[in-house]
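pasting for ref
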Amino acid sequence: MAGELGTTNLLLGIMAAVSVLEALLIIGVGIAAFVAYRRVMTVVEGLEQRQVAPAMARVNAILDDVKGVTAKVKEETNRVDQAIRTTMDRVDDTADRVRANVRVKTSRLVGFIRGARVALESLMAHREPRTQQPY
């Protein structure tokens, strides 16, 4: 039985040593991954400072310009719309005034012509010989 325990102890010792080596290997891989992560983040930050930040500044400036142009166009559109409305109101008012003035000035002439027509009709009606009709 003593021989069997020696082999078991040897195998257990080998397994313990392998476990320690695995633990050291895992710790080493973790440290290497952390170092690689820091290097990648340093490169990304450098790219961001050199490339992305200036591009974002230009994009923001362009957006500010577009915002200003849009506001100006909206203001001018409102101004033109108000001018068109005012002009249309004035045209309508002028048309109403012209219509009223024409009616006032022509109403006398129209009245005179209607009166003359009625007078002519009544004269023509009196000139025609009337035949007496029994009642």
